[in-house]
Design a protein that fits this description.
Largest sheet: 11 strands, antiparallel
Structural class: alpha+beta
Strand content: 25-35%
Order of helices and strands: EEHHEEEHEEEEHEE
């Protein structure tokens, strides 16, 4: 693991972007509100659209078709924005430094696996399959666990380390032991993370460019980090590229 120390290598560095303090955010509370709001809208919006069309046109059939179309559109939106309704680790946004978001994460539990390949796409695919099998019941209790986000990938000595965050209501001792010996469970202590967001369908080339940009911004901002840049993906493969939330993380010292 390496530490980036900018003080000695860039004495003529321009003044770092100002740090802007922010209020705490509560991702879990936001998801609860979204789920409740969407649940109410799924029934109300199609009914309202159908009634409005039927009243305006005098056609009950037209109202039924319009209501069904509105319901289908809302289901499609729910499908494309699945991450809005999926648990992720709680964090507090401490500040913005230029384009970077500085976050403080609570301790969390992860399932992780090492994939011995230098190919990012191959590693992410293989690692995801191992971990997905674990949460879908390939464990010693045959217990199914809820999917959470993000899925992370970071370079390791032999290839890539792929990780799933475990559901927040499952401490380490409560999780079923993996049947695949390549999967391990561990607690990640509290962390401060610099995060940079980007969209698009992630692949090795795009992630490598975003990691290089992340390192550049970290250096220019004068932040002390440890370890390698880490990719964090929040969306399933079915999500359109421009709607995807991808991030690069670097742990702060």
């Amino acid at each position: 693991m390496t530490q980036i120390d900018t003080g000695a290598t860039q004495p003529t560095m321009e003044k770092a972007p100002p740090i802007r303090a922010l209020d705490e955010t509560m991702p879990k509370a936001h998801r609860i509100v979204r789920k409740a709001a969407f649940g109410g809208l799924v029934g109300a919006v199609p009914a309202g659209v159908g009634f409005g069309i039927a009243t305006a046109t005098g056609s009950r059939r037209g109202g039924i078709i319009a209501g069904a179309a509105a319901a289908a559109a809302m289901i499609a939106a729910r499908w494309q924005l699945q991450r809005w309704f999926t648990d992720e680790p709680l964090y507090r946004v401490d500040a913005n430094v230029g384009e970077l978001e500085i976050r403080s994460y609570d301790a969390r539990v992860e399932a992780r696996t090492e994939v011995e390949t230098d190919d990012f796409d191959e590693a992410l695919g293989e690692g995801f399959e191992r971990l997905f099998r674990y949460v879908r019941g390939h464990n010693q209790k045959h217990e199914k666990l809820a999917m959470t986000v993000p899925v992370t990938a970071v370079r390791s000595i032999d290839g890539y380390r792929i990780s799933f965050v475990m559901p927040p209501d499952h401490p380490l001792y409560s999780l079923p032991p993996p049947r695949d010996m390549r999967v391990e469970l561990l607690t990640i202590p509290e962390q401060r993370i610099a995060a940079m967001c980007f969209s698009g369908r992630h692949h090795g080339g795009l992630v490598a460019r975003q990691e290089a940009e992340m390192v550049r911004q970290v250096l220019e901002s004068g932040l002390d980090t440890t370890g390698e840049p880490m990719f964090a993906g929040y969306d399933p493969p079915s999500t359109l590229g421009f709607l995807r939330r991808n991030e690069i993380w670097m742990e702060l010292v």
